[in-house]
Structures are given as structure tokens and as C-alpha cells.
């Protein structure tokens, strides 16, 4: 498969929309609704990947973006600088909804195994399996334990599963290379609203449990 290279100004989000009349990049159709802040994006060879024990076809993209990274830390405040970060995005279609169901199951299991005090203190405590939720629209995600090279997010948006792997910096870097993808580089667009992720979700896990038990994610 031939490679496509697109250069985009950093100061604006580049949204892939199959409805745009002037869209010329049909090979990027799978990214419809996902707005990315980028310096450049390159489509690479398609492949397969396994999510929740289901192997599916995925399209793969290399992404290069300028982000803010922490380079120093002291008792007063941290020092931040700009850096160019690289990511590999692998994204596939969940045709029968099985991956969505298993993703939702994993979040439910994660939170129902927590203590009542942990559930009540969710705003200040770490969480790996969680969701961004807004009036019926949602993006599920699994957060890695750290930002090291090779670590990745799993993200579910509409009927698509996406794996975003941090591949390192062009030159000098710092802390927060992977987490910056959610906090700075991506937005998820639905019919009536947009979800702008934050590094840590503040959605109440008790509300998630209630939504799950009411079959919101089936």
C-alpha cells in the first residue's frame, strides 16, 4: 500500500470527516470524527491486532505532534518545554459490538472491585479503566501505568477500537509523552457534541456502574 504524507499547521485541529465535499483522503475515512492536532500524519501498511481476545483488521497511522512536556520538577513548580512526539495509531472496526461489550465489562469489573472509600475518592485517586461521558455520548479508555516508550492507550469511540502507542521524541523530550495525546492532541466529535478528554477522567464511577447495569453500553 502506498504511503500518504499530509502536512498540517500545528495551531489547528485537523478533523477527518467523510462528509466533507472537498475530502480527498479516502484512506483516512476510518478516522472520521476524530480530530487530531498534528504536524504530520502518515498512513502505513494495514495489519491485524487483538483486542479483548478478538483479532480484527486495523489501519495504521504514524503521527508526529508538538506537545508540552515537563523537563524539571521542584518543590514549587515544574518546568515545561515544547517537544515533538511520535505515536502509532492502530484503529479497527468493531463490526458486531463484541469489543464494546467486553470493554464496558472491563470498566465495570474494575470499579465494582474497588472499596466504597475508593469509589467516593475517585477524583483524587488513579484509575486505569474508565470513560469520558457526556449526555449519552462516551469514549471508553484504558490508561497505562506510565508514559514510557512502547506504552499505549486503548480507546473505544463509536464503533471503533483504537490503540495509541507512544514511540518517543524526535530529539530532547521530557515527562508526559503519552498522556499528552489525550490532554492536548485529540477530540472526539459526535452528532451534537464534542468530548475533549483530560489526562484523568472525573466521571463518577458510581454513575458508570448505574449506567452499565441499566444496559447503557449494550
Which short descriptors sum up this protein?
alpha+beta; four-stranded antiparallel β-sheet; 17% helix; disordered N terminus
Characterize this entry briefly.
With 218 residues, the chain is an alpha+beta fold.
| Helix/strand/pairing category | alpha+beta
Whole-angstrom Rg = 18 Å
Number of strands: 13
Let me know the average pLDDT: 85
Tell me the series of helices and strands, N- to C-terminal. EEEEEEEHHEEEEHEEH
Percentage of β-strand residues = 35-45%
Helical segment tally?
A: 4
- N- to C-terminal distance: 36 Å
Summarize the main sheet.
9 strands, antiparallel
Number of domains: 1
Low-confidence stretches: 1-12, 15-23
Shape: globular
Give the helix proportion (percent range): 10-25%
Give a verbal description of the structure.
Helices cover 17% and strands 41% of the residues. The chain has 4 helices and 13 strands. It has one domain. α1 packs across α4. It is globular and about 50 Å long. The chain is of the alpha+beta class. The strands form 2 sheets. Strands 1, 4, 5, 6, 7, 8, 9, 10 and 11 form a 9-stranded antiparallel sheet that branches. The relative contact order is 0.18.
